[in-house]
Amino acid sequence: MNNDMLSQPLTSDRFRFACHKNLSCFTACCANLNLVLTPYDVIRLRTRLGLPSEDFLKKYTNTSIDKGYGFPIVLLKMNNDKKQRCPFVSVNGCTVYEDRPGACRIYPLGRAASKIRERKKSDDFFFIIKEPHCLGFNEPKEWLIQDWIKDQGLDEYNTMNDFFMDIVTGKNFRRIKSLTPNQMQMFYMGCYNLDEFKNFIFKSTFMKRFEVDPDQICRIKTDDVELMKFGSRWLNFALFGEKTLSIRRH
Description:
Layout: E1 6-9, E2 14-16, E3 36-37, H1 39-49, H2 53-60, E4 61-65, E5 72-76, E6 89-90, E7 93-94, H3 102-106, E8 109-114, E9 123-130, E10 142-144, H4 145-151, H5 154-168, H6 181-191, H7 194-202, H8 206-209, E11 210-212, H9 214-222, H10 224-240, E12 247-249
Antiparallel strand pairs: 1-9, 2-10, 3-5, 4-5, 6-7, 8-9, 11-12
Helix pairs in contact: 5-10, 6-10, 9-10
């Protein structure tokens, strides 16, 4: 998240950490961030703010191209001030705390996962992320990794984010040198601009060209999380030919 951070392997399933207002470094980590937002992060934040996906993306994010794989990634846009503070931080802390991004929730841990492609339970590997200014590591509070995950509501975020990671870290993406402009537009729409993706499904010839399960149609019409899941499966189908959708071409 921050260029000055260091990552260290965990030598056990326990670590010490606490963050609270009485620490002099409180909210210091909420500035000058390269904070990547996942599709589920975008859903939670834009719903919290009551914004259409396109409006949220224009106001609060920047888009970059991943150097390794060439797909678009969305980053939270910092304020245009001296400290480049997060737009959602105040002197009292995070103003969107209940819907804060997964990267904020998991801190001070980092997570790496494998076996996502097989849709089995991921083998998670956790490590500690330390920033020089952070005093939270001097606090006596001790955590088990699983207790921290539960306390921060990470199980839901990890499950939802694995749909995204299934695309960008899967075996198929490693075979692609770069996406075409049309593929990049499709990727951005299917992952982040879900309102546009919904219009693509229901206001284009999509339904004439594909037969979609009626129950799935009802779910994606009314539930953005289901639409996000459909989008990830659609991208695996459209980009890689994966048989991941309950759809049939007419």
